[in-house]
């Protein structure tokens, strides 16, 4: 069959479609750098929607941090290798501002980065610190801090979100909290997913039906918390309309994955990036990457055939084990695209501590690649692998983002820094 | 005679043979993104994650006989959202192939048999001579009654024509006038095209019936017909699965062909860009709203987003940018309508409509008065669920709107127009 090979060129190729990859493309867009981004769904579809900067401090991750900016100062002395310690605070702040600003412009409003962490509700009904949250979730935080009466509502057939569990867990800290269970209108088949409810709520008729049920469920209470289901494409609008229809204040709480806030982000990026001039090749992995002095060539293929991308510079944002940025085998941990050296524990025995729940975390969760001050990956000799190769996100060594509650922080801040360095390189 | 039984497949073993290197079902994280995003979830108490898990647990008997495989349209949305790129539709195809012919949904089997029954490869069994007759008959009438088109042509078996154009059976069988708008478009752009009296049909339900041999035979006939006429491009009409079964079949069966496979949509876009199809949206004075349905068979499963962009370009040119509202989700992330995979033929009406509820919600959320789609199955399914769930939208072919915009849509070519559109003529 006669096929045409597809070929793209760009100033910057971003490899990876996690938070770091998407953030890098946004920052590149803001700097007018012609960008191509490649990568299949990463952890982004699993996120709660909360953007954490720093919630807990290495090395022992004891107390939860209220002021992440002060926390970053402390981190500098307790764990200076951490990637966040290599970036000026003003840059981190700008990075979060630009990132949340972009999301807001595209229809998913976020709170701006503030001076302190907010205490937000998790699907399990615990509280955790985060820096920025979707606007749809904000009222939950204020209602909690003001200790206002509130009803958490869940749905028959919905798994991964239990209003009774949330209410039970928060009973001591939020005595005015109640819970109840209702049926979602016109959904009959066994298990129902938040994604399906969210899409159904994009239809005005479903909103009207649900509003009636919610009013009944709220009783005298004026504030209600729902699982994150308030629309997929236009959550702010759906929430506003539901508030108008019910006369209640409504907020969302994230559910267990697969959760709507993550899918919202992914679908929004996938739809808007091409419109904004970014060459986005979603759902595909780069098979081979060739870095040369004056440029790079990426090889991949989709169901339609082979694709090549030529770029002057590359940002590697391929994540860790879950996403395939790092691979673990009997012989140790490797980086599959360029075989970059990976900083890792000396032997497999040291990957994990004895107790899985050890608060200090496990050494394997700090594995990753090394970069210089310009976020260029280092080769075996400790020199930059190439002048036009940069890295960002959780592929970087010396951070345990789960324990440190700094997933988005590492992704967004290092992406900002890497793009800044790309711009310098390109000029 | 004893009821034929469904043999048991060892799914785990088969999966290892089927999947490309590195993409193993073992890598499933059981995250549920596939099930959450699959309109067939819950039907027959099954969903894609459950299917994979049962396969991994060796619950082969239950899976081998699960009726759910006929409710999965093989739309590959699960693979699209899966972080591990796991393709469940392959297991579904395998399971379908495994059912004894007598047990498979009779409608799909019959459609495949009809395709094999004549040289037309028509799922409605329309033989070549009847097709030729209908085409000529309709052509004559147009030449007579529409003076603007008194020289219109519908070439048959023209050797060396640039485009080999296929044709859905539905038109020559039951609504022959619907063929005319496309002929007019070819006439206006001056395309060098031909129909073929053999292997002209666009449907291919043999793939969906899980009959690989028959699928191959159909594709072979079609490839031979194009080669025989020496055409450079096999131009697929407004139909999703006929493109996919041909394109995928040629790759799957390792066939050698020296023509290109193209979709009509990309040519609409090209001709508009080149100024050969001078469409505009001036006619849409009442700002009637339109959305588009991305057929998964040509978007997600084949071309990817590039053809989805072409569809949007054409739509905006036709109806006005401000009158186009995108469905959510869209392009490669779009939901299958629920008419695919042979669902429309399978006779499982209730399941099909349950599946289609997701599409109905998507359309309802846009508030559009019309859905444009270049796929006959999508077309039928969206009309059906619209009636069933009380929607007020209409479904139109691209060719209809193109001719409407150009002011050349004949009286008999307006079946799918509601009163609001008729008023715009
Ligand atoms: C369940 C879960 C919940 C989370 N919740 C939160 C939260 O509440 N708050 C928060 O701040 N953070 C949260 N995170 C963390 C956050 O989503 C990101 O994981 C983190 O920020 C890392 O982002 P990343 O882009 O570096 O890596 P990843 O998100 O892992 O993305 C890596 C990307 O690279 C791609 N890739 C890998 N190899 C290739 C290749 N060869 N070619 C092309 N692409 C490739 C992958 O497909 C993937 O898209 C959560 C993560 C998980 C898993
Ligand atoms: S999306 Fe993929 S990884 Fe997740 S449950 Fe489905 S098949 Fe498994
Ligand atoms: S192919 Fe489509 S219908 Fe089948 S399991 Fe996947 S998403 Fe569902
Ligand atoms: S009918 Fe349309 S949406 Fe459904 S499988 Fe076919 S092309 Fe896809």
Describe this structure in words.
The complex is a heterodimer of chains A (427) and B (425). Chain A is of the alpha/beta class and 427 residues long. Chain A folds into two domains: 6-108 and 263-426, FAD/NAD(P)-binding domain (3-Layer(bba) Sandwich); 123-253, Rossmann fold (3-Layer(aba) Sandwich). Helix content of chain A is 31%, strand content 21%. In chain A, a hairpin with a 2-residue loop joins strand 10 and strand 11. In chain A, helix 3 packs across helix 11. The radius of gyration of chain A is 22 Å and the shape is globular. Chain A starts with 5 loop residues before the first strand and ends with a helix. The model of chain A has no long low-confidence stretch (mean pLDDT 94). In chain B, strand 6 (370-372), helix 18 and strand 7 (394-396) form a beta-alpha-beta unit. In chain B, helix 11 crosses helix 12 (241-252). Chain B has 20 helices and seven strands. Chain B has three domains: 42-103, no CATH class; 109-270, Rossmann fold (3-Layer(aba) Sandwich); 278-422, Rossmann fold. Chain B is mainly alpha-helical. The interface between A and B is large, with 40 and 45 residues. Bound molecules: flavin-adenine dinucleotide (FAD) and iron/sulfur cluster (3 copies).
């Amino acid at each position: 069959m006669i096929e045409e090979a597809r070929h793209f060129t760009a100033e910057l190729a971003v490899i990876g479609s996690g938070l770091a990859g998407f953030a890098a493309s946004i920052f590149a867009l803001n700097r007018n750098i012609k960008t191509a981004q490649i990568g299949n769904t990463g952890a982004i579809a699993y996120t709660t929607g909360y953007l954490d900067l720093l919630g807990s401090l290495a090395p022992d991750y004891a107390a939860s941090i209220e002021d992440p900016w002060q926390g970053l100062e402390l981190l500098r002395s307790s764990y200076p290798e951490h990637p966040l310690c290599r970036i000026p605070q003003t840059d981190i702040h700008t990075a979060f501002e630009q990132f949340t600003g972009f999301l807001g412009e595209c229809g998913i409003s976020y709170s701006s980065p503030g001076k302190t962490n907010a205490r937000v509700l998790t699907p399990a009904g615990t509280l955790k610190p985060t820096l920025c949250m979707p606007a749809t979730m904000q009222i939950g935080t204020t209602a909690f801090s003001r200790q206002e009466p509130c009803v958490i509502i869940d749905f028959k057939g919905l798994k991964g979100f239990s209003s009774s569990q949330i209410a039970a867990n928060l009973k001591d800290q939020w005595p005015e909290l109640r819970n109840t269970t209702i049926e979602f209108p016109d959904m009959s088949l066994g298990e129902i997913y938040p994604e399906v409810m969210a899409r159904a709520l994009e239809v005005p008729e479903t909103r009207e039906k649900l509003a009636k049920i919610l009013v009944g469920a709220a009783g005298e209470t004026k504030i209600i918390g729902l699982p994150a289901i308030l629309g997929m494409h236009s959550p702010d609008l759906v929430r506003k309309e539901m508030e108008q229809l019910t006369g209640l204040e409504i907020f969302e709480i994230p559910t267990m994955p697969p959760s709507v806030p993550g899918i919202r982000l992914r679908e929004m990026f996938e739809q808007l990036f091409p419109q904004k001039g970014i060459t986005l090749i979603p759902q595909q992995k780069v098979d081979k990457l060739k870095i040369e002095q004056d440029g790079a060539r990426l090889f991949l293929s989709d169901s339609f055939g082979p694709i090549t991308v030529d770029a002057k510079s590359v940002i590697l944002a391929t994540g860790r084990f879950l996403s395939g940025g790092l691979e673990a085998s009997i012989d140790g941990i490797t980086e599959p695209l360029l075989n970059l050296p990976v900083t890792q524990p000396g032997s497999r025995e040291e990957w994990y501590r004895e107790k899985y729940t050890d608060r200090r975390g496990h050494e394997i969760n700090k594995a990753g690649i090394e970069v210089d001050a310009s976020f260029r990956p280092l080769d075996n000799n400790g020199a930059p692998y190439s002048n036009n190769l940069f890295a960002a996100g959780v592929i970087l060594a010396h951070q345990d983002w789960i324990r440190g509650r700094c997933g988005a922080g590492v992704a967004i801040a290092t992406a900002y820094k890497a793009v800044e360095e790309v711009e310098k390189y390109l000029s | 005679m004893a009821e034929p039984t469904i043999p048991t497949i060892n799914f785990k073993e088969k999966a290892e043979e089927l999947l490309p290197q590195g993409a193993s079902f073992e890598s499933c994280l059981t995250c549920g993104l596939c099930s959450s995003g699959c309109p067939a979830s819950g039907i027959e108490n099954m969903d894609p994650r459950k299917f994979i898990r049962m396969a991994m647990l060796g619950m082969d008997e239950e899976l081998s006989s699960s009726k759910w495989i006929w409710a999965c349209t093989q739309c590959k949305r699960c693979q699209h959202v899966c972080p591990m790129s796991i393709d469940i539709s392959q297991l579904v195809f395998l399971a379908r192939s495994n059912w004894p012919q007598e047990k498979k949904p009779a409608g799909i089997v019959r459609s495949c048999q009809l395709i094999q029954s004549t040289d037309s490869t028509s799922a409605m069994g329309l033989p070549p001579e009847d097709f030729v007759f209908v085409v000529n008959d309709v052509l004559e009438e147009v030449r007579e009654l529409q003076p603007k088109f008194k020289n219109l042509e519908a070439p048959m078996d023209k050797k060396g024509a640039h485009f080999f154009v296929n044709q859905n059976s539905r038109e020559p069988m039951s609504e022959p006038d619907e063929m005319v708008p496309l002929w007019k478009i070819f006439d206006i752009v001056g395309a060098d095209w031909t129909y073929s009296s053999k292997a002209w049909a666009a449907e291919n339900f043999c793939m969906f019936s899980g009959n690989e041999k028959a699928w191959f035979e159909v594709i072979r006939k079609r490839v031979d017909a194009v080669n025989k006429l020496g055409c450079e491009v096999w131009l697929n009409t407004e139909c999703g699965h006929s493109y996919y079964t041909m394109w995928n079949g040629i790759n799957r069966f390792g066939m050698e062909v020296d023509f290109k496979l193209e979709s009509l949509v990309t040519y609409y876009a090209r001709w508009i860009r080149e100024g050969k199809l001078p469409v505009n949206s001036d006619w849409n004075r009442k700002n009637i709203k339109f959305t588009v349905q991305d057929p998964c068979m040509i978007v997600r499963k084949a071309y990817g987003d590039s053809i989805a962009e072409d569809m949007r370009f054409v739509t905006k040119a036709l109806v006005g940018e401000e009158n186009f509202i995108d469905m959510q989700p869209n392009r490669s992330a779009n939901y299958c309508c629920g008419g695919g995979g042979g669902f429309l033929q399978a006779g499982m009406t209730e399941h099909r409509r349950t599946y289609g509820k997701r599409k109905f919600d998507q359309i309802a959320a846009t508030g559009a008065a019309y859905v444009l789609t270049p796929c006959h199955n999508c077309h039928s399914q969206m009309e059906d669920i619209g009636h069933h769930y009380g929607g007020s939208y209409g479904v139109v072919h691209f060719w209809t709107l193109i001719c409407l915009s150009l002011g050349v849509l004949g009286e008999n070519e307006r079946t799918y127009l509601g009163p609001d559109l008729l008023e715009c003529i």
